[in-house]
Amino acid sequence: MLEKTAASLEPCGFHRAVPGAAQSFRTTRQLRTAFWRHGATDLELSTAWQALMHGTFDLNMATSEENKSPALSASAFLLDFLYPSGAVTLMRRLAPTPRTFRTSDKFYHEQRFTKLASRLYTSSLPKQQAHRPESEIPPNQETHETNENVVAEINESSDREVVQMDRHADTDVYETPSGIETPVGDMGDSRVDVDHLEALENFLIDGDPEDADRVWYHYKALDEPLQTDYIDRVLTFLSKSGRISDSWKISELFHKLPLSLWTGRFFVAGVTAELNLQNEDRALEIFTKGLEIENSVASLPYFVDALDALLASALRSPTTEFLKDIWKHYPKMAARWTFAIAAKQVQKGASAFDSAVLKDVLRYYTRLCSKRKMEAIISQLTRVASVPGLAEKALEFRTLRKLHGFSSFDREALDTLQRILVRRALVSCADDQVIPLLSITKDFFAFEEFLRSVTSRGKGELGVEVYNIYRSIPGSIPTHAVLYEMFKAYDSLNAPISVKYAGLESLWSDWYRFHRFPSRRAFQKFLAFHASCGHTERVYDIWIKYVDGFRNNLTFLILEGDDTFTHLLQVHAVQGQVEETQRIFDDISKRFRMNPNTHCWNILLNAYVKAGDYDGAISTFEKHVAMGRPDAYSYGTMIQLAGDRGDLGFTVDLYHRSRAAGVRADEAILCGLVDAYCRNDYLQAAEDVIVRAAKEKVASTYIFNKLINHYGARRDLAGINKVLEIMAEKNVPFDKYTYRQLLIGLSVCRQSQHALNLLITALKDNIFEVTTEHFSTVMGSLITSGEPGAALRLHKLMQDYGFPSSSDTLFRLTQALGKYEHMPPKIRSSKPASEWLGEILRSFHNIYGLGRKEESESESLEISSSDHSPEQHGRLLKKTTERFHFSTMVRMLTDLRYFTGARELVDLFRYIFKDEEGSDDILPVAMLNSMMIADFKEAQDDRVTEAWEILFETAKREGRSADFEEGVADAPKISPKYRYILSDGLKIMQKLLLSRQDATGLKNLIQEIRSEGFEVDSMNWNFYIQALIELNQYKEAFVTCEQILMPNWRGWGHLRRRERVPGTDPNIPLDERRRGTTYAHHRPIATTLYYLARGYMELEQLTHWSTEAAVTFQKIEEECMQVVRAIKSMERNYSSFEEAILHKDDFVAKVNRDDIEYYDEDDDSF
Prior knowledge:
- The protein is mostly helical.
- Helix 22 (390-403) packs antiparallel against helix 23.
């Protein structure tokens, strides 16, 4: 029973871990054999004790594994403190351990228990064998009986003989690890030593830490001289195992090691082992002895490791006694190295980050480094940084140093300790503890370490705040690395551009303040920022200083730099100034005799893309292919441009060319393919692209967001949900833009309340990162659904949550004010219409009325004139935030019949955003449509016609598809994205022609539009048919409705309910009803069918008087059966609206009045 208990304790080294033990607990107590004859039977130990046998406890062990584990038997060596030491030697000779196969010890990883060696002594003989005759005892059991007899003889021997025998036996007995063969024969034999030595050599050569127990067993089996020879190698092996359970072994060997054999590794291992055994005094004793040795033992790297372990142990202690004992030796530690020497040694094994910090502080804070000798090692105290609650200890240290016996230390020692605590606490402290910690010491080194990694840890805003404190401390010199990091922090700041600009300008002045002149990298960063923002004047100002400052630099030829001209190109490219970009690009080769690199070609290509010059972009790309090697950015830019327009053939061709050129498909290329397929209604193909990309781990969230956007534009919420499920299945993370696309989809489907609920839930439960863009989207949805009051309240909620107002949210406020007629009567009647109009204009003035675009001064750089003549590309179809705001505002004023204000706003737009070509450039298509409405309402027919011609001709030129080829049948003339771009203008032109009673002109208009590749949307088709009925063009109206609109008509609602098949729902599914509201879903509205019904009755009456009418009526009956059936199955409701149509009210007069929308009531078919 005692053997079983000892088996559960010995491998844990419990008796070795008791503090204060100066020697092994093994004794030579003599016990009589009668002690063992106490009748105890064999016991099986639980799984828990088996786990303790190996120093581990696995609660999750499978039952099957437990069943496979052999029964645990204790060995005699586990109770060696009860035996006379020589007895075990004799017992092993008489009862040798059965041979076992060596198995791998895997309990550290797989929690598998290996089979232990069999027990050397059994306390009781099995009854079956005791009563069996001698002849029935097997040979192997005879040996056992012989052993019993021998043991009986030993019991009868005198104590004197036992003591005499003990003198010739080994003084120590150690356990036998599992799987080790115990040799039969005399243990003191030389052959045995050779076997142990050979096994030890093999284990030491293999170097497997899992063999630590075997190494220890074979080592202890050697005689004393051999142990002395191998003590250093075994100690080295055990120190690498990393097992706490080996600490007592390391401690025992280390204290046997002569001082002359101490090395740095042994020194650290000895300190660590004593700390693991909770022998802090002995650990500190080893540490102080190592400080006194003048060899490699106390070299800096090992000294740092030992000090790190000591300080970490002291800081984890609830008292400060051990910390004080350590820091009493500070003078000895500080006297050993200077900062420069310590920094040089630390840099050999430190990370690149720590080495860079040491190098810079030694350069910029030389005088301070000479006073702080231990500062160089603080960054290497990794164990100290992991102490729980270190930040709180550092903050409380100022009080502790006065109360807990630190008064005997000098100020330098305490200040150094405090700086150690602060700098190590900054590694893992909370954000709100950073500034209080830094304020304690105002340590320049601490500021440097913290600020250099703020952006990588996502603490840019905190970094900016800390930097402003750092730069204001007298004597501070922020290094280059800190200034670079602060540039990234300001650039990634989630704040208005004005805040970023002010911060970066302050940072730019700090370069001159602290370093006299910016570095080349600083020039590149600031040039890139201002170029991306389109700050032309600032770019040229910095660029000239850059060239002048490095003109005479022999190590860097400024004019041959890869990025010397890229910033000049970029600042014009982002503004879409193609002519200026092309002129600078040409000067690179013509004036400076240099070949533009790929980066320059890509910027020029991007300039044409920004300007909306599709043909120019294609031409530039082809030149690049002919003169150089386009990269992934080149192909990605072109594929995205072509895919966004929907030119599927050209997009796929570019994709195949990129693969042939060895360009790997990236995010931009895949997005272009998805756009191209979706624009052509191949949504399943687009899904296949992203699914394959997800399998190959190249699909990003942005690509899925693209597909969500296309489903939203089609009012397909089921499709959106399917994409979200694919993202979840493929483990593609959702980001804030994913949720924005979801909000847009809900808004387009007129689910404004669902969008609002999602946004409010995100604010309360922090489902996703909410931004002002999300508020702007939901506000737009509420305005579209006729809830301007809710939009105003949402903006107030946004401000209450601390979100800053953006130009988009302010514009939504303006839109909401423009819908004041939809507000509750109490609010609407609180002001007259003129005051509401004034509120609208003042709100818009807050966005764009604070300044106007100034003319750029003549450029300081002399650039030769270009042969490129000014062209107006992309003026009509180009989309920007400013164009959208001004166009919507003009439309709002037009709807309010404030035509003068609308025209003045157009003039203001031309003045603010005018280009070098003058103010006669083409207006954006939405603004041009609004001006056509204003002119139409004021009966300015000539101006309407003139605007239409400009719109039509420009749209043909800018919307031309790259897939179009002359003479090729069915080749698309217009890119799918722009096929419906003329819808609003067409609506106005139809009303104009109808007011003129020009049926031929109306037919020619539709025919001309379609012949040029444009499409007519559903509402225009409906109005076209209504106008044809008004102009007595019956056959054209019926045929057009039959061919274009009726294929998607689902019948009258009352007929579906009356004639429904049992078990089916007569109502049209909600998803289909939503898709029916899209512009490309052609279907007849109820108003159109009313007009056709009136035309049908009129034509039927004319058949009695006109043969031509009879023939027309007969053809309509034969060719337009769906329309005729719809008319005949119509049930009248005798509403005023229906009466006005069927009895031919003054439709033409209404067209010329204020309401320019289609005449429609609640559509009974939907």
